[in-house]
Automatic annotation (TrEMBL):
It comes from the Bacteria. Residues 330-445 form the Mur ligase C-terminal domain. The lineage of its organism: Bacteria, Pseudomonadati, Pseudomonadota, Alphaproteobacteria, Rhodobacterales. It catalyses: D-alanyl-D-alanine + UDP-N-acetyl-alpha-D-muramoyl-L-alanyl-gamma-D-glutamyl-meso-2,6-diaminopimelate + ATP = UDP-N-acetyl-alpha-D-muramoyl-L-alanyl-gamma-D-glutamyl-meso-2,6-diaminopimeloyl-D-alanyl-D-alanine + ADP + phosphate + H(+). Residues 108-295 form the Mur ligase central domain. It comes from Hasllibacter halocynthiae. It is an enzyme of class 6 (ligase). InterPro entries: Mur-like_cat_sf, Mur_ligase_C, Mur_ligase_C_dom_sf, Mur_ligase_cen, MurCDEF_CellWall_CoF430Synth, MurE/MurF_N, UDP-N-AcMur_synth. Signal peptide: none annotated. HAMAP family: MurF. Pathway: Cell wall biogenesis; peptidoglycan biosynthesis. Its EC number is 6.3.2.10. It is found in: Cytoplasm. Belongs to the MurCDEF family. MurF subfamily. This is UDP-N-acetylmuramoyl-tripeptide--D-alanyl-D-alanine ligase.
Length: 469
């Protein structure tokens, strides 16, 4: 029988909790919809109280539950660990998971590209070392502890993703993860509503170095306008610094995003590299170069890691390319980048759209939802998208949401396809948006819900991934 990830007694010791009945846990989850038999169910209280679902979790095969009280309808001798505060208990379990591993830990943050870069590392490192990486976008006050608590006992590399929405959030998570290597992907005007200025964002992102341990390494984006802030923080920590981008130790050369792929050359301390990614985007090339710089710090074969990056694919909503069939016949190419948006990532997505060839009589179409949390200049920032140089190659723009009305009004008349007050209205108009041969980009902040447009396009026919994806 396989050794459990955690015994109930180990969980109780790590959290200072009271064990009601013995159990062995093979995994951890906070949601009964994704819980697998043998998981520890963690009864967090957020929008809903997880204690209301403990009985269901146990009935569905949960090995046990981490709770702050015995829930109604659950026997007092059920397999529970009772702690004063569930979130604090989860953090303690994550700290214990980090303490017992001998793996090298990498922490990644940045205004854009965190999750894609984390998944690049999973792919590039996993062929050479047993690699454990965060699930989905588990990058907050509960996601990072779960990542650490789930570290397999035989892991050799751990990749933790660390995000933020407000000042002061990254340093405590870095202190919990205690990484050997910190990677910052990029600094961009996201969350300006909370920070007011991009320098504040850079200072917060730079605080990822606070938890560095051992022979500390910081891998930093040399092209960031706020690079001096990042470098100063790493130097103050005594970290060994590697830089990447169009300048720096790991230097991008030619980057060619075209028809769903990106080929780039790079001059690096590990030698000249040529890399082909099965995803289009200059930003993907930059992030991949940062990943290879991390590979070198971990003592991996960089050339092999570069080859293995060719197997990485972006996840849904993060730049994935699909073919969707139309009800009346014919196909469109769908660029699904609907998970999030800010000025930097939108500019990168527009470049990808501009470099993607439509079919005969097809057009390049952008469906753009609001970019949120941009602060008092949000109207100006949205209108300025009209000046993006790649807009010249885009035939029609559908603007979605109250903020994108500013872009709609700033566009030349021949480019305005329409303004939709919300994603539901845009999704309802999908049938009139598209014709065979079109390439359509859908992008917006998650709360703009433009993923509904993606779902409507997929539902209009049958969505197929390209062969091999």
């Amino acid at each position: 029988m396989a050794e459990p990830l955690w015994t109930g007694a180990e969980i109780a010791e790590a959290t200072g909790g009271a064990l009601k009945a013995p159990f062995d846990a093979a995994g951890i989850d906070i949601d009964t919809r994704t819980l697998r038999p043998g998981d520890l169910f963690v009864a967090l209280t957020a929008a809903r109280d997880g204690h209301d679902f403990v009985a269901d979790a146990l009935a569905e095969g949960a090995a046990g539950a981490l709770v702050s009280r015995v829930p109604e309808g659950v026997p007092a001798d059920a397999p529970l660990v009772v702690v004063p505060d569930v979130l604090a208990g989860l953090a303690a379990l994550g700290r214990a998971g980090r303490a017992r591993t001998r793996a090298r830990v990498v922490a990644v943050t940045g205004s854009v590209g965190k999750t894609s870069t984390k998944e690049m590392m999973r792919t590039a490192f996993g062929a050479q070392r047993r690699t454990h990486a965060a699930q989905a976008s588990y990058n907050n006050h509960w996601g990072v502890p779960i990542t650490l608590a789930l570290i397999p006992k035989d892991a050799e590399i751990v990749v933790a993703e660390i995000g933020m929405n407000a000042p002061g959030e990254i340093a405590p998570l870095s202190d919990l993860a205690r990484p050997h290597v910190a990677l910052i992907t990029a600094i961009a005007p996201a969350h300006l509503e909370a920070f007011g200025r991009i320098e504040g964002i850079a200072e917060e992102k730079a605080s990822i170095v606070s938890g560095l341990t051992g022979e500390a390494h910081a891998v930093l984006p040399a092209d960031a306008p706020t690079f001096p802030i990042l470098r100063a923080a790493a130097e103050a920590k005594g970290a060994q610094i590697r830089t990447f981008g169009t300048r720096g130790d790991w230097r991008l050369g030619d980057v060619t995003p075209k028809d769903g792929r990106t080929r780039f050359h790079a001059a690096t301390p590990a030698g000249a590299l040529e890399v082909t990614l099965d995803a289009a985007g200059r930003h993907f090339a930059s992030n991949a170069l940062g990943v290879l710089a991390v590979a070198e710090t971990l003592g991996l074969d960089v050339e092999r890691a570069a080859r293995d990056l060719g197997r990485w694919r972006p996840a849904d909503g993060r730049g994935v390319r699909e073919t969707a069939r139309l009800p009346g016949g014919g196909e469109v190419t769908l660029l699904d980048d609907a998970f999030n948006s800010n000025p930097a990532s939108l500019g990168a997505a527009l470049e990808v759209l501009a470099s993607t060839h439509p079919g005969p009589e097809g057009r390049r179409i952008a469906v753009l939802g609001d970019m949120l949390e941009l602060g008092e200049d949000e109207a100006t920032i949205h209108a300025a998208v009209a000046d993006d140089p790649h807009m010249a190659a885009i035939d029609r723009v559908h603007a979605v949401g109250p903020l994108m009305r500013h872009l709609h009004d700033a566009l030349p008349a021949n480019c305005r396809a329409g303004w939709h007050p919300d994603a539901a209205a845009a999704a309802a108009a999908v049938g009139s948006m598209l014709r065979a041969g079109d390439v359509v980009l859908v992008k917006g902040s998650k709360a703009s819900k433009v993923s509904r447009v993606v779902a409507a396009i997929r539902a209009s026919g049958r969505a197929d991934r390209p062969e091999g994806s």
